[in-house]
Task: structure prediction
Amino acid sequence: MSSSSAPPIAAHGLVREFGDVRAVDGVDLEVAEGEIFGFLGPNGAGKSTTVRMLTTLLRPTDGTASVAGFDVVREPARVRASIGVALQDAAIDPLMTGRELLHLQATLYGIGRRAGRDRSEVLLDRVGLTEAADRLVGGYSGGMRRRLDLALALMHEPAVLFLDEPTTGLDPMSRLNLWGEVRRLNTELGTTVFLTTQYLEEADELAHRVAIIDHGTIVREGTPATLKSEVGLPTLLIDVDPGDEERTHEALVGVGEPRPARAGRVAVGLYAGAAGAADAVRALDAAGISIHHMELNTPSLDDVFAEATGRRLEGAAEAAAEDAS
Result:
């Protein structure tokens, strides 16, 4: 039975194996009512597998989980009736219009004809698709399809909304629009949101708390501000000639601690804070190392991820490239 005091989402020792591969390895998490919870990690880390277990699409190999107070294994129908789900690979019929799909969704949830039509109009307006409502979905842009998918997930006014990488592949403006809609849902309706993403900025902008998953295990959890403060030192990024990375690190031994970076770039956490940037320049000049570009970054979720896993998150570079285009 559901418990009114139960958190909207809770998992304990959640495991999912595919043959010899353990995709999710003992995940523990709890999401509070009215919270936007960011689930952050690279492709293949176990994010989507976890979501599929929480939304009853995959049966856990081990462990327990409840959503909206219902056990995902024993009470899957009640879980499904309580949640909205917008998956990354959702199938939307391209030969139907947006309005037709919303009417169909209302019917599937047992909503009466008039109420379903009224609800459809409200949702079309909410996601900015009123003018495109009678166009075939096959002609929608990627951003429009994502917004329609969000409207479909909200038809039955779910207590908990799962968004699985909702902005992957979207242009920067479409991404910002979707962020705004997620914020409105949370602040105006109090919807609890479980957001999986590989975009650091997305998690930083939207989430009240985040968990970082790597190789099926949660390696960090907390508010973005707390996690960033725990990293502490600002990061100095220096672009040098390929092959000069090792010499650069040697020159900066007394200036900062090494951090993961791509080829041709050196990253160090400055012991003296921002004031240490001048010491770094002097050390590199003394070592005869050419600097092509240098920037100082305050701690970010990318730094948190790097500190926890020893590497950078792919989505950080992808998002930066898209925003620059």
Q: What stands out?
A: The first helix runs from residue 47 to 54. The CA atoms of residues 91 and 149 lie 9 Å apart.
